Amino acid sequence: QVQLVESGGGLVQAGGSLRLSCAASGRTFSSDGMGWFRQAPGKEREFVAAMSLIGRSRAYADSVKVRFTISGDSAKNTVYLQMNSLKPEDTAVYYCAARPQRVTTNQAMGDLRKYNAWGQGTQVTVSS
Fold this sequence. Notes:
Layout: E1 2-7, E2 10-13, E3 18-26, E4 33-39, E5 46-52, E6 58-60, E7 68-73, E8 78-83, E9 92-99, H1 106-109, E10 117-118, E11 122-127
Parallel strand pairs: 2-11
Antiparallel strand pairs: 1-3, 3-8, 4-5, 4-9, 5-6, 7-8, 9-10, 9-11
């Protein structure tokens, strides 16, 4: 099993930036990809960004394209989410997740059912 720990959340003003980190440990070699999801109060968990650990495949939700960037450092077993031009509607708990199987479509990369390991989440609050 893969263990995931997120960090980097906090309170930021609209227009500001944050970088979230997700440190992975355990059977990291069993994962094909990583993703970021978020859940706002009273809403379902939604896809934010995903990447394949081998290759350059990236996928983003329309709401964060251009503003957010997912990246990884294999030496550190860490995945990042750089968030720029933050908006109040980005306020949510952000979760990191690991995907064991290779997928080939953006839709599959954004499907939370494809992920079998989740972190505890980190709160991001954007004030207006």
